[in-house]
Each structure stands twice: as structure tokens, then as C-alpha cells.
Amino acid sequence: MNLSKEKVLETAEKLAPGFRQVRFGLLLFFTLTMPLVIYLGNTEYGYTKTIYTFVYISFLALVWLAEIIFNDDKEISLTGLSIPIGLLAFSGLLSLINAPSKGVVLQSLGLLVYFYLIYLLIVNTIETKREANYLLITLITSGFGATIYGLLQYLGVVRGARGFSGGAGSIISVMGNQNYLAGFLSYIFIPAFAIILISRSKSIKTYLVLSLGLFFFLLFPIGARGAWLSLVFASLVFGAGLLYYKPIDNLRKLWLTLLVIVLVLFLAYIFASAPGPLNSVLSYSAQEDGEASWGIFTPVVRPLIKQLVEKGGARVEDWYIGLEMLKNHPLVGIGLGNYKVKFLEYRGRFLTSERGQGFGEFIPRGAQAHNEYVQFTAELGLIGLIAIITSLVILMMNVFSRIRSSKQWASRILGLALAGGVVGYLIHSAVSFPAHLPASSFALVTFLGVINSGAFGKPEYRVKLSGITRYLVIALAFAFLISVTVFAYRDWRANVLMGEGKKQIQYGNYYVAKERLQKSRSLDFQPRQTYYFLGVTERELGNERRAIDYFEKSLGQFEPYNLYLQLGTLYQSQGQLDKAEESLRVFLSLGAEESLKTKAKYFLSVIAIQKNQVEKAEKLLAEVLSSDPKFERGIILQGDIANFRGNEAKAREKWQKALDVINDKLSRVNNRLSGEIKLEDLAELRSQKERLTRHKKQITNKLEGL
């Protein structure tokens, strides 16, 4: 049957409302699943959520594109918040100038674009207050599911961070970290409270009151001060808004609802706060001697005081490191997303400065600054800082102007709650990094999208594409969405393969590890950690030259502490003594673990001997053995120096001492290997045994040769 263009368009117009309903249903499904989705084959929970977002939102955007294609009159609302997004994107592009890892900048910009796309989808899909409530209840339900999972981990019913032992330390839920969960719950708490007030459904009220009780209960054992700070400020904004706008003239109508909420929260507090009946069983947060109790505010006040009185907290150091980056690249920053890449390099500079003398404790991982404003300023420079401040001003003006324009009391209450959630997120950003957490960022985008949707009046800045521009934009959008989806899938596969490669390294299966890692590198949009682990693999296989190549490629992409130690020892082995010494000196400036510092100083002493600087070597060895008296390689080298000087008695004494240490360590390693051990520890134990056996043979030969 032949259909004319007019009939096709007429049919499409009739189906247009159906298109939007399909889009709304798909949006609800994404809202429910995105914060909950995890895949244990990935290296991080947040990474899985990111890839899921790329793929699902691409599909949802393609559905939207299809609707636009069939409906010539379809308008798109961009809203005033498109201006801040444009400013931030422009700053991000400028930051490419100094970025050591330009691929990381592009990945970060891709995420910014996709969360903006989620925002536009919400704005252009939600048309009524009812739909807005459904979307928010779905988001709260996602938080409810995450809370139930975290609660079961707390009770030891399901496996947590510490197995089945239970307690606060086991809580990670589907977020990968208890603090991430606490932050997410603090954002959705006040919106859930508001929906209870405005909903007419008793079943919804009951469900949300139960959810609030569980959220409140779990926040206590987690004890995240940033999340409590977020919740306190969200509550203050909501309360102040109620007093100012007076959306409910007679609160007595809601007295029973408010009484039930207060009762549920009080019961949650009684059961969750020390010394409550439940956590006395689980040994949670018993008050230490000499610590003041601050009642319900203890989880907020006590850690804040502790942070203030303790000199040189790790987070303060993170902020100073961001300042060092800004001083070095003041205009356009070090590159969006590159704080984590160059963290250790700038930490080394900071620790050697006068201001850094009071710091230097080991920081296991410097991925974030624990302050989004500091981190983004370091990454985007002063231009980025201006963009951030401008964006925040526009954002707050937008939020409160939309609330003010709402005439219905229910809309104002909901709007004030969403404003509280937004402010809570922004406050939390000063002590944490919610913008780097997909679920937390999604909560913010949802709040802003709902406020700017049809539920709060007519959306602003509506545009209608026409003519050649319409087809060009559709074609470019289609190509972009498909390309991102393909890259996301390839990147996901690369991450899975990298994780498998890391496991094989731990098991000691280096050929299998190499195969997995090489496949990962070929699929990855921006290989970072893969280069480092390929270097480790090649070194274990005896290919030192290839290992150096991979480690050098890791510079500017992924720079853990061990990278400089690996390079230093490899350069030393290859006879490149100056480069070896430089790498080891850099390593020592980074504030690494003491055991690794000891190892680095030992290799510096070896280099000193190779350069005929024996006295310098002896000084370094004295530092090594002062730090670790049983560092057998240092003792052996002392014996070698004594033998070189013709002091055979001292040489014998040192070598015999080293032999005793080695025999003791070999005995311990053999005992561990003969018992039950984790597979991930197997390769390390075998490597220790091989190294100790080799050193034992060398010393035995030395002693026999005297």
C-alpha cells in the first residue's frame, strides 16, 4: 500500500502523544535502574553506571529524534540552564591546551554532554505535576533499594566490604562506598518528605514515610559528615522557603502526617544512634572516653571538630595540591579530569615546599580533591572559575524564579524541596565529589529537570528546527549518539578485559594477563591503567625494554606511586643511572609507603656504588636498615662493601646475618604457601619465594668463596 507524505505526517501527529508516553516510560525505567545497576566484572561500580548511562540515554535520545523527524512542529525547550552548560563546556575545551591526557578531557566533556541530554529529556518529557511526582518517587524507590541492600550488609545478611561480618564498615550497597550512598540519600530525603506532604494517596504516604525512616536509620552507622551537612542545609533551605512563601496557610491539616514522620524518624534515631539496642549488638560507634556527645548532631559536629583540630588533614592537603596546579596553569587549568592524573607529581612539589612541611602522610589514592570547586578550578583555571561562579548564580536564579512563578501550593512545596536537594548537593560538593559520581549527578539533574519542566509552568527558550538546519542537526545528533554508543561498548569491554588481566597478574599467569591487557588496549578509547599493568606484565616476563616503553606511556595517563619506582629500578637495570636516580628521587618526594621508600633508597645506594660513590651508598644503607633492620638486600650490600675494602670478617658477619634473615622469611613464606591463601596473594608469595631463594644461593656462594 502506497502512503503519501501527507498521510505519513498525519499519522505521525496522531502518534505524537504516544511517542511522549513511551519516552516517559523509558525515562522512568532509567531513573529506577541507573543508581542500582552494577556489574562485578567492571573495576568500579560507578564505571558501570557511566557506561549504562551512555548506552541507555543514546537509545532514549534516538527515540526522541524519531519523534522530531515525524513531527515538523515539534519544539525543543533548552531552558536558561543551557547557558551554564555552554560555559562549562567551553572552559573544558580550553583546558585541552595544558592537559597531559587529552583523552580524559574528551571523556569528561562527553559525560557533561550526556547529563545535559538527560536534563533536556526530563524537561521536554515531563508535562504535569503527576508525572513529576512519578519520576521523583521512582528516584526515591531507587534509593530505597540501595538502602535495603546497604542495611542487609550492615546486618551481615549479605556480603559487604568486609564479607559477612556486618557493621558499618561493610556498607557499600550498589554505590561502591558508604559515603557515596549517604550523599545520594541526603539529596533525595527532603523531596521525599515534600511528596509525603502533598500526596493524597495513603499508600504513597506510607511507603515514603517508611523510606525516610530507613534513609535516616542508615545515615547514622555510615556517619558521613558531608552527607549530614548536605541534609542539614537542604532542610534549612526547605524550612526557610516554607516560612517565606507560606505555601500552606494552615499546617494543622497535616498534623497527623507530620506526627507520623517525626515518630518514625525518632524511632530510627533511637535504634541507630549509640547506645541503641540494635547497634549495641553490632558494636557500632560506641562513644570514646573523653568525647563530648552532641545528641542527634553528633555525626556532624564531632567529625568536623576532629578535622579542625587535627593538623594537616589529607583533604586540606588535596586542596593545597589543587592550588599548586592552578599556580602552574592559572588561565585554563591542568585539563578537565586531569587532577587525578597529575596528583602525585604536584603532591611531590607541594611536600617539598615550605607550606607542605606539615603534611606527607601516605594517601592511598589521590583521585579527587574532596572539594569540587577546588578541583574544577585546578582543572579549568581562572576562566573555568569564572564560568563556575556564573553558572551557580544562573542556576540559583533559575531555580527560585521557577518556584516563585508556581501558583499552586503543592508545586511550591515540591519546588522548595527540590531547591533544598540542589543546595544540599552544592554544599556537599565543598567537602566531597558528587559531580564525579553518576548516581549523585543524576539526582541533581533530575531535580533541575523537574523544576524546569511543564510541571512548574511553561518551559523556557523553546526552539523549532526547520529547513536544512533541522536535517543537519538530526544527522549530526544521530552520528554522535551512535558513535558514543560504540565507543562506550568498546570501552566497557576494555575495562572488563583489564580487570581480568589484573587478576591474572595476581595469580601469576603473566602470559594470560598480557593477552587480556593487549586486547583491552586495542579496544580502549583512552588506555591509562592498561599501559601500567602491561609494563608490570612485561617486567615479570623478563622483557625489561618493553616494560620501560609501557611505563613511559603511562606517564601523563596513569601515575600511581609504583610507576616511578618501577621506572627507576628498570633504568638502573638497563644502566641508565642518571634517569634511574631522577625517577627514584621523584618517587621519594611523593609521600609513598615507608616500605616502598626503603626499597627506593636501597636502589639509590646501588646506583651510588655503580657511580663509585661508596660513602654516599653507606649513608643511604644506614637509612634503609634504620627503617627496616631486616631488609636483607641492604645487609648483603653492606657485606659487599666490606668485602670490597678487604674486611672479610665484617663481610662474613653481614652475609651470615642476611642469610639468617632470608631463612626466617623463607620459612614464613613456605608456611603461608602450605596453608590456605587467597588466589590474589599467590603470585606475590611465589615471587617472594623465588627472590629469597635466589638471594640465599648468592650469599651461600659468597660465604663459600671467602
UniProtKB/TrEMBL annotation:
InterPro entries: O-antigen_ligase-rel_domated, SecYEG/CpoB_TPR, TPR-like_helical_dom_sf, TPR_rpt, WaaL-like. Residues 212-389 form the O-antigen ligase-related domain. Residues 652-702 form a coiled coil. The keyword Transit peptide does not apply. Signal peptide: none annotated. The chain crosses the membrane at residues 21-39, 51-70, 77-97, 103-122, 134-155, 180-199, 206-222, 228-245, 254-272, 380-401, 413-431, 437-456, 468-489. It is found in: Membrane. SUPFAM superfamilies: TPR-like (SSF48452). One of its GO terms (molecular function) is ligase activity. It is a multi-pass membrane protein. Keywords: Coiled coil, Ligase, Membrane, Transmembrane, Transmembrane helix. This is O-antigen ligase-related protein. It comes from uncultured organism.
